[in-house]
Design goal:
By secondary structure, this protein is α/β, with parallel strands linked by helices. It has nine helices and ten strands.
Length: about 325
């Protein structure tokens, strides 16, 4: 968790120090760290000290009964198979978020009126992927326990796995809507099971593969194709399928994961595995808008790698999509 970069997602006086919200560790025994009068809880011999006088229900100035959308970064960049750099995604998305108006003409909502909290980035130690995934899982679990709705900025796509683990634990009927150029359903990639190329296969194992809907897919391996073919009703090359997926998800809780490489590289070159032949920025925004009314309890936007970007167009698109998704998460589900 860091620093002033977190302030960049939206100019708001409602920003709170990241560590106030997400002081965590595997050693907390599942307890949710408490705020201590607005300041950081203290680490004590590796344990997080608790102060039950703190008011955990208050997020970003929201009324206690109003759940906030909590933005955080998960800068994992460990299993990227082609060109790395997604660790810089959260920073770039926040930076280019500056250029956008807070009011959305699509939704008629204003971000300034939405309970919103930017918790900064999860500190991920370099090296083994397992501990990093555990930290991300913990971060999401803490956000949910505090009544927040997490919006995670990747990072490579593998970050979706620990996030879904945490969200599924809280919402057993979870549906996953997956927007991506790649199926990401490899059983293994070069002998490894935990990679960004197999993340949706792992996610399917958690929530049940009938509960994963993939749209925009235009790249699979031969092995994946066989598996993906068995999911025909749940996998489409078109973003137009999202309307059908939304209808099938109904009122059940939804996790939305968006890999920015679903968009054609002409519109989103700043990503690790560009796949030609995709939709435009506008088509993605319009497709995402068809998900309005769903009960989106958590979401992510992944695989922005700014060093391959030109003029920030990929980061600006990711920031725009993030803002639209935040508004959808903040809107009460259709009743
Ligand atoms: Mn992808």
């Amino acid at each position: 968790m860091t620093d002033d970069r977190a302030r960049h997602f939206i100019e708001t006086s409602r920003f709170m120090a990241a560590r106030d919200f997400l002081v965590m560790g595997r050693d907390t025994g599942g307890r949710v760290p408490q705020r201590t009068g607005g300041r950081v809880s203290q680490h004590d011999g590796g344990r997080v000290s608790q102060d039950t006088r703190g008011d955990t229900a208050q997020c970003a100035g929201a009324a206690p009964d109003t759940p906030a959308v909590v933005v955080f970064g998960a800068p994992l960049d460990t299993t990227t198979s082609f060109r790395s750099g997604a660790r810089h995604g959260p920073r770039a998305i926040r930076e280019y978020s500056y250029v956008l108006e807070t009011f959305s003409m699509r939704t008629g909502q204003d971000l300034e009126k939405i309970p919103l909290f930017d918790a900064g980035d999860v500190d991920l130690a370099p090296g083994e992927v397992g501990p990093a995934l555990d930290k991300i899982c913990d971060a999401v679990r803490v956000i949910l326990k505090k009544g927040g709705s997490p919006l995670m900025l990747g990072g490579e796509h593998l970050v979706t796995l620990p996030a879904v683990q945490a969200v599924h634990a809280a919402y057993p009927g979870l549906q996953v809507i997956h927007i991506d150029a790649h199926a990401d359903m490899r059983l293994q990639y070069l002998g490894q099971e935990l990679t960004h190329a197999g993340v949706m296969r792992r996610v399917s194992a958690i929530v049940g593969r009938e509960n994963v809907y993939s749209a925009g897919i235009r790249s699979v391996s031969a092995d994946e194709h066989e598996y993906a073919s068995s999911l025909a009703a749940n996998l489409s090359t078109s973003l137009g399928a999202l309307m059908d997926f939304a209808a099938r998800a109904g009122k059940r809780p939804v996790y939305l994961t968006i890999d920015i490489d679903v968009v054609d590289p002409a519109f989103a070159p700043g990503t690790g595995a560009p796949e030609p032949g995709g939709p435009s920025s506008r088509e993605l925004l319009e497709a995402v808008a068809t998900l309005h009314g769903l009960d989106i309890v958590a979401a992510d936007i992944v695989e922005v790698a700014p060093q391959y970007d030109h003029a920030g167009i990929t980061a600006a698109l990711a920031a725009k999509v993030a803002r639209e998704v935040i508004m959808m998460m903040a809107r009460a589900p259709a009743s």
